[in-house]
Design goal:
Layout (H helix, E strand, L loop, with lengths): L2 H9 L1 H14 L20 H22 L1 H14 L6 E4 L10 H14 L11 H15 L1 E8 L14 E6 L15 E2 L2 E3 L5 E7 L13 E5 L3 E5 L17 H23 L2 E4 L8 H4 L22 E4 L9 H15 L5 H5 L6 H40 L17 E4 L8 H13 L5 H7 L4 H18 L7 H22 L17
Antiparallel strand pairs: 1-11, 2-3, 2-8, 4-5, 5-6, 6-7, 9-10
């Protein structure tokens, strides 16, 4: 308190306290103080408590929008296409030998085996790995999380679809993990049992989908945490369950849907209105005319109104629907929705490709930063654990036997390739890559991976093609050997032929001059 406040406090303590409280409020952030124009809405509670109250409602809304909104269905499809891609996350095994170099032979064996296992990796045998990853990614983005139980080795009553390696994945929607299953005494919170360090030890999942009509009870079973894949979308620390990527945009999406429906109704009403009849003056009508019922006029191309009464005129109704402001307003709203929902590319969702090359590339670059963040999260939480478990089970089952010169500490190492940014102008992109490699600022492998290709596989294909072309006598510009050495070999062949034609005599002519001299 200052001197004045202390003086007031001796006479009127409550007044002095009010002055001190007001001064403290002025010293805070303006946004933290509610006012007539600022309501200062707050989010109160831990991340888990907020998810407990909201996750199911948000998840159900997101599913409804996916089923009934073409915008959201297209948005989720665009996200999945750019986060996982049409062929799933690419995996390039990179085991090392004791010298620290990639063991090419064993890497090839691991890749061939993983490709074979990828044909039927899920427990039902219905999906390939690419289809499985697309479904998992869509569930993760739409619902906020997805589960996958790792079925390892021999399990009574179950046969692995891929018999070469006893490893399968049982996919589960987040409904299988009950949000309301909380037993603090046992350390169970939102269906997940944790230890004192908040590390998951067990997942208590339903034996059947709770929304299935065939469910007769809600019995749960525990699954060890090391056998459960739990990919989730979180934005706060200490969050056990995920929230849909559409959470912050749901109100805007609902408002846009209502507005579009209103515009559609207004446009249908305007389209149904054809014309009106303007009546004449009062003296033009008799008592019988005013009592006449409403008339109907058939409308067809070339209609002529030849039965109008005296003084009547036909006027057409000008339709101003849909509003001219509909499209720019909708574009602005969808841009905000795309920005909030994972930073998806608005041009791809709206199918409107406008602007210069630089503008389109800038939008694509910005979007692929967001796609890259989601791809890394998907790889870390799903693709990498799946591949590593496959390698472990394939070695244990004898499907792959590491050679003696392989460093066993590196057998799980692999390079994971998410979808790459497409080229807008292939010529400019290729020129840029060529200059980077020529200048030593990039490598061939880096360029190949940026195009979504496996460098080793591409090199093997190139070797095979070049060998076949040379054996067949085919010359293409892609083989620089002909460009570097072909001309010199041709000159040498012509020189030999010239010498053979002249009898091999390069001596001077009869007059002493040298043949062929300039």
């Amino acid at each position: 308190m200052n001197l004045l406040d202390r003086a007031i406090a001796t006479v009127a303590p409550s007044w002095a306290l009010t002055r001190a409280r007001s001064r403290s409020g002025l010293a805070a952030y303006e946004a933290a103080v509610p006012s007539r124009t600022h309501k200062a809405k707050k989010s109160v509670g831990s991340a888990d408590s907020i998810v407990q109250r909201s996750a199911k409602s948000l998840r159900d809304q997101a599913r409804h929008l996916e089923e009934n909104s073409d915008l959201i269905d297209g948005l989720l499809t665009t996200l999945v296409n750019n986060v996982v891609g049409k062929e799933g996350i690419g995996v390039e095994p990179m085991p090392l030998n004791h010298e620290g170099r990639v063991h090419e032979q064993f890497a090839r064996e691991l890749l061939d085996g993983f490709v074979e296992w990828s044909l039927r990796p899920d427990s039902t045998g219905q999906y390939s790995r690419s289809e499985m990853e697309r479904l998992v990614c869509r569930t993760w983005l739409r619902d906020g999380e997805c589960l996958g139980e790792q079925l390892l080795g021999f399990i009574p009553g179950f046969m692995h679809p891929n018999k070469a390696v006893p490893f399968s994945l049982q996919l589960m929607e987040p409904d299988f993990l009950p949000l309301d299953l909380t037993r603090p005494a046992d350390g169970v919170q939102q269906g997940i049992e944790v230890n004192r360090w908040q590390q998951a030890t067990f997942y208590h999942v339903y034996e059947q989908h709770p929304g299935s009509m065939a469910v007769t009870g809600f019995k749960t079973r525990p699954v060890k945490a090391e056998q459960m894949l739990h990919i989730k979308q979180v934005k706060r620390l200490h969050t056990r369950r995920g929230v849909t990527v559409l959470a912050s945009a749901l109100k805007r999406i609902s408002g846009l849907d209502n507005y579009e429906e209103s515009e559609l109704v207004a446009a249908r009403i305007s389209a149904a209105m054809a014309f009106y009849i303007r009546k004449g003056e009062g003296q033009d009508y008799t008592a019988d005319d005013t009592a006449e019922k409403r008339r109907h006029f058939p409308i067809s191309p070339g209609t002529i109104f030849d039965d109008l009464k005296p003084g009547e005129d036909v006027g057409s109704i000008e339709s101003k629907r849909p509003s001219a402001l509909l499209q720019p307003f909708r574009d602005a709203m969808t841009r905000m929705i795309c920005s909030a929902a994972g930073g998806v590319n608005h041009s791809t969702v709206s199918k409107k490709y406008e602007g210069s090359y630089s503008a389109q590339r800038q939008e694509l670059v910005d979007s692929f930063v967001s796609y890259g963040v989601l791809s890394n999260a998907f790889i870390n939480q799903w693709s990498r654990p799946v591949y590593r478990r496959y390698v472990q089970m394939s070695i244990l089952s004898g499907r792959h036997v590491p050679p003696p010169d392989v460093d066993m500490r590196t057998v799980l190492i692999a390079y994971y390739q998410p979808p790459v940014m497409p080229w807008i102008d292939p010529y400019k992109e290729a020129q840029g890559n060529r200059e980077l490699v020529k200048g030593g600022f990039g490598t061939e492998a880096e360029v190949n991976r940026a195009r979504g290709k496996n460098p080793q596989e591409l090199k093997r294909q190139r070797i095979r093609e070049i060998k076949e072309n040379r054996e067949a006598g085919l010359v293409f510009s892609s083989d620089a050997y002909h460009e570097l050495y072909g001309a010199r070999e041709s000159n040498e062949e012509r020189t030999v032929q010239d010498r053979a034609g002249s009898g091999g005599d390069d001596s001077a002519d009869g007059d002493g001059s040298t043949a062929g001299a300039d």
